[in-house]
Amino acid sequence: MAHPVLIAAELQRLLAPEQLVGLDVTWLPTDQPTPAGDYVALVPLLSRWVGGSELKRLPKLKIVANCAVGHDNVDVVAAEMRRVTVTNTPDVLTDATADLAWALILACARHVVPGTELVKSGSWTGWHPELLLGIELRGRTLGLFGAGRIGQAVGRRAVPFGMRVLYTARNPRPDFERESGAIRVEFSRLLKDSDVLSLHAPSVPETKGIINADTLRQMKPGALLINTARGDLIREEALAQALEEGRLGGAGLDVYLEEPAVHARLRAAPRAVLLPHIGSATLEARRQMATIALANVQAVLKGDPPLTPVFG
Ligand code: GLV
């Protein structure tokens, strides 16, 4: 008998029929609440909160296969208590997300968005030696807050740009240090010395609001702040204020506190490059994310260990 499963409807086109063999799929659109029922697997997008009450309404659930590397949308403790496996989709989106972080770094450093707007509006008056002067990256310092897979991939890309790399992480990363010359420092030094500060930490109690009025004040004047991790790492009002006051050289953001709503002051802030959470948005990465999520479901339903569990 086919296993009843709930899968985010938006994944339908990324999945091939053979990945769904043995499953009786209910496609669940994002704007609909998680239903109650005898479903044995749930494959949500990162925008669906899966907490204690949702899990309670799914008493037969064996696995939440989150289609994202972040899993802050799942109450992992509640899941563990109910013996529900939680999996994520690491590795396959590392390069796509690191590339996008670099797209934001370069866009901020070289005024790519205002340049485009100038040309498209027809108001460009010609080559000028001081038009849209940016920041030369060679010789500058890239600071990584967090050096997991994505942070390291961003750091490795800094080498051909001639940047020095600093990072904070709970544990030293000797291989990464060898490859990139990166140096592990205290957070206070990262703030003080980074010309570009890029966030690559998960949303957990210790990282929420880590970029706030106080830490923004400790950053180098004119520095760029990049966030492709999670929106709640930043206090958005404080960042908007730092941009309004010209203390930062720019901010490149792909994630926000209340997605898809974006703080009005941030939307209006100068030198802010704002993307709609597309860090992993390449066809390759998105297909592989959906594939891993389904492989986790199939493994757990067969009684095999999950491929990419987030605990246990
Ligand atoms: C995207 O933000 C993800 O966590 O995969």
Essential attributes:
alpha/beta, Rossmann fold, 2 domains, five-stranded parallel beta sheet, elongated, binds glyoxylic acid
Q: Approximately how much beta-strand content do the residues carry? A: 15-25%
Bound molecules: glyoxylic acid
Assign the CATH class of the largest domain.
Answer: Alpha Beta
Total helical segments: 11
Counted up, domains total 2
Largest sheet: 7 strands, parallel
**SSE pattern, N- to C-terminal:** EEEHEHEHHEHEHEHEHEHEHEH
CATH superfamily of the largest domain: NAD(P)-binding Rossmann-like Domain
Q: What structural category arises from helix and sheet content?
A: alpha/beta
Percentage of residues assigned to helices: 25-40%
Structure in words:
The mean pLDDT is 98. The chain has 312 residues and is an alpha/beta fold. The protein has 2 domains: 3-90 and 283-301, NAD(P)-binding Rossmann-like Domain (Rossmann fold); 94-274, Rossmann fold. Strand 10 (224-227), helix 9 and strand 11 (250-253) form a beta-alpha-beta unit. It has 11 helices and 12 strands. Helix content is 32%, strand content 15%. The structure holds glyoxylic acid (GLV).
